[in-house]
Specification:
Layout lengths: L1 E5 L14 H13 L3 E4 L14 H11 L4 E4 L2 E2 L5 H14 L4 E6 L4 H6 L7 H17 L3 E4 L4 E5 L13 E4 L3 H10 L2 E4 L5 H17 L5 E6 L1 E3 L3 H21 L15 H4 L5 E3 L1 H15 L3 E4 L13 H20 L1
Parallel strand pairs: 1-2, 1-13, 2-3, 3-5, 4-5, 5-8, 8-9, 9-10, 10-13, 11-12
Antiparallel strand pairs: 6-7
């Protein structure tokens, strides 16, 4: 099982004199600690907390600052772009990083993003599906010819070609059974959501593997988990709950399916933690991660956060997140290798 972490946004570790310096350092230290990959979020025109609107730019910079970390988009909202533009950008980034790119994509759930670029929100699934086919052709064939509902391409040569062969893996983020099965049919991996319990995800992972096997496709699973690690269990649990309750309420308000989240705005840790939370001492985190591995069989496990102090975007967040990363890297990763 490979271990990853979410790369903060520049505003999370704000330093007006050097906006990205701490992020570079954070990734370099993570690599030294034994983390295998870094993940990058993506949204456009965000009216709330700023997201990475151009993740390939910061990924290029971090690729130049590291040597081993795989760089993963979780997730890139693919329907917002023309696939030929994306094919060129990702292939260039893959060459720059010497084949360290994994391209995680999704349909998106914010209609204002699609509206802003003139894309029909109700057609985002078919647009993503066509885009993935165009990407594969662009990366593996001398030229691309494609006729679909959304894109018509006639004998276009896309350069450069990626370093990774046959191409950078394409993963799809999906919450529900039908989209998970779609990921099994057309992608190389599934990004499993952080908010759902292992009881929900276990059967879905089994179904994902079965459909992928029937289609003779790869079936890598990247499981996302929000994590809070500390030598003080109560501190970790409090921090985990304080982060996850507002996030769950936000996603539910925006229509995301949360089948196993309590129907209350203020659940307790005991209400939501079982087979969901990675929160506590290093030994408790090890035990919880072993459950993840045994239940899901995930090859990649991505920690969205690890700290127990000030949340991202507040003074002191860098120091507390770095302290937690070091604790995780020194005590948890070696125990699970």
């Amino acid at each position: 099982m490979k271990f990853g972490f979410m790369v903060p946004r520049e505003s999370d570790f704000a330093d007006d004199r050097d906006p990205y310096g701490r992020i570079y350092e954070f990734c370099q230290i993570a690599e030294e600690l034994g983390f295998d990959f870094a993940t990058f979020t993506h949204h456009r025109f965000s009216p709330e907390r700023p997201y990475l609107s151009s993740p390939f730019v910061i990924m290029s910079a971090i690729a130049a600052q590291t040597t081993k970390l795989e760089l993963v988009t979780t997730i890139f909202v693919l329907p917002l772009y023309h696939p030929l533009d994306v094919a060129e950008a990702v292939a260039s980034l893959d060459q720059l990083s010497n084949g360290r790119i994994i391209f995680g994509v999704g349909t998106g759930y914010r209609q204002y993003e699609a509206d802003a670029v003139g894309v029909r929100f109700d057609k985002r699934v078919s647009r993503m599906t066509e885009s993935i086919e165009v990407l594969r052709r662009a990366w593996t064939q001398p030229s691309v010819t494609f006729e679909g509902q959304h894109f018509t391409i006639d004998d276009v040569t896309v350069v450069p070609k990626p370093s990774r062969q046959p191409h950078p893996p394409i993963w799809i983020g999906a919450l529900e059974q039908k989209p998970i099965e779609r990921a099994a049919r057309i992608a190389d991996g599934w990004i499993a959501p952080y908010i759902q319990t292992l009881d929900t995800l276990g059967p879905r992972a089994a179904r994902y593997r079965a459909v992928a096997a029937g289609c003779e496709r790869p079936s890598t699973i990247c499981l996302e988990r929000d994590t809070a690690i500390s030598v003080d269990r109560d501190v970790a649990r409090t921090a985990w709950l304080a982060r996850n309750v507002p996030l769950a309420n936000y996603y539910r308000d925006h229509g995301a399916p949360l089948p196993d989240w309590p129907d209350t705005a203020s659940p307790t840790f005991a209400d939501v933690a079982p087979r969901r939370a990675i929160a506590g001492t290093p030994d408790e985190c090890i035990a919880a991660l072993q459950q993840c591995r045994d239940t899901i069989g995930c090859e990649y496990l991505s920690m969205m956060n690890m700290g127990v102090g000030p949340s991202y975007g507040h003074p002191g967040a860098y120091d507390t997140e770095l302290e937690a990363m070091k604790l995780f890297g020194r005590e948890v990763i070696p125990a699970l290798r």
